[in-house]
Amino acid sequence: MVNQQKEKADIGFTHEDFAALLDDYDYHFSPGDIVAGTVFSIEPRGALIDIGAKTAAYIPIQEMSINRIDAPDEVLQSNETREFYILSDENEEGQLTLSIRRIEYMRAWERVRQLQAEDATVRSAVFATNRGGALVRIEGLRGFIPGSHISTRKPKEDLVGEELPLKFLEVDEDRNRLVLSHRRALVERKMNRLEVGEVVIGTVRGLKPYGAFIDIGGVSGLLHISEISHEHIDTPHSVFNVNDEVKVMIIDLDADRGRISLSTKQLEPEQGDMVRNPQLVYDKAEEMAEKYREKMMQAQQALESSAVDDVASDDVLEEEAVAAAE
User: Fold this and answer.
1) DSSP 8-class letter at 238
2) Which pTM value belongs to this model?
3) Quick one: which of 238, 239, 247, 252 has its CA closest to 267?
């Protein structure tokens, strides 16, 4: 009889006691917190999550992924434990609303900021186009390629489904702006195989009052009106026609801005030859380019020599100052 009483006294906590403790405990969950939770019920348009609160928290299907999904089980499995973002305060039933999408969203922006800092080239398929350009997804975020930064002869609408190499132009989480450039990625790739002073063959693709756009191996370079000839010309139309094949020399490669600057002026055997006799300029192009490279090399050597002389002069002045002080 004594043993039975002792056994009864050792029962300890009951379910009622535990429920009472939960009622007394304040978890202090707030919107913006990231908590661990376990999936214990999957519903057609959402799931109930145990995060240790008095009432199960709820995650709607639209908050389960940064990408569109059709069913909760594409993302969540029963009894799975993972991180959740608390999206809103308790509703009238004391239930919190959770999100996975918000965590993925924050981490995606962190990742694209890192990729931008590394000046990385990324690849993504175009999923839609509009009047301004094309739309892609990078790390699940929607990115925009302005029409001026799409470097292809295809109509924009034919790009849907095509994977493009891209460079970052703007990454701004506060304004939800992710802007990319196809042209800059192509130019950078092309630039790795080009050198200043090199003569290349291109095709005139466009004429503007300020110059001609020349296609060289799939990327566009600008032949500014001031670099067409030593002789003054009023308009590039007086020298070129669209689809003309030309020889040009590369005078600048700007990878950061994705620009290639070209010249025919530096290839003229005599000033004004590009206006009077373009074929002569093309025939002599490699010879004139070699002279240009020699001139640039001499200028660079002179600059380096001047810098060495300046350092030596500074050393002498420093030695004289030390001697005077002694």
Assistant:
1) G
2) 0.61
3) 247
